[in-house]
Protein: Helix-turn-helix transcriptional regulator
Organism: Paenibacillus sabuli
Amino acid sequence: METWSADWLEPGECYGKVYCERDWKWDTRGRPFADWDLWYVWSGAGELERCGEVRSVGPGSCYLLRPGDETRGAHDPARPLTVSYIHFRIAPPEGSAAHLDGPIRYEVEERAAFEGDLTRYVEAMDAGRRSEARLLLGLLLLQLRRETSQPQEEPAPRPERSRSLARTMREVMRYVRQFPSAPHSVETLADRARLSPRYFSRRFRAYSGQTVEAFVIGVRIARAEQLLRHYGMNVSETAAALGYSNVYYFSRQFKRYRGVAPSALRAR
């Protein structure tokens, strides 16, 4: 059972956000942590080994490393990591014992809120506002706890959060319509929305009534119809313009969505 208070948190002097160098590595084997470290990935791809367990890390990955932990990390030089790190201690008052249980690793779903608090933490520490930083660190830890305690039946978002999510979904949909030929995926669009892929997929479907994949295909097919009807492009040109490497696959997909082959539409 967890027992802790934000008042017990002691922010350390080691904190920040950094774009890791091409040849970056992280190796604390033989030199275990003396304090806690909240370590979060904003972007990039790599892997982290903690006490012998190796896991891939990417946008939204977060570790709450404990005193005594040993780590070894590396990244893809072509996709270097950008990370935040916050070292801290827990100092309960005399006669009290602190327990900060839960997982070591998390995948943050609502990344925008989490990253906002990370940014504000650095600003507060830089300005010497340690009391504010302590409260922000407490909020970050509470959000991590929520990540592991989601009920089976997910509650509806609060009204203000629901409006924010709706704006996010509308922006993503406008972006897809603006760039129909781009190689959109759940992962890239979730990253744009600053949400985890799983959470983004659920919220997108709840908002639009269709999956991300179905929406992207529908936008491409609608654009293909415009190019065929109004811009004088033939089927091969249209398929290539919209990122299809196989014109036959494009034709089958178009017919499935429109009920007619694109060549028949072009001939009208």
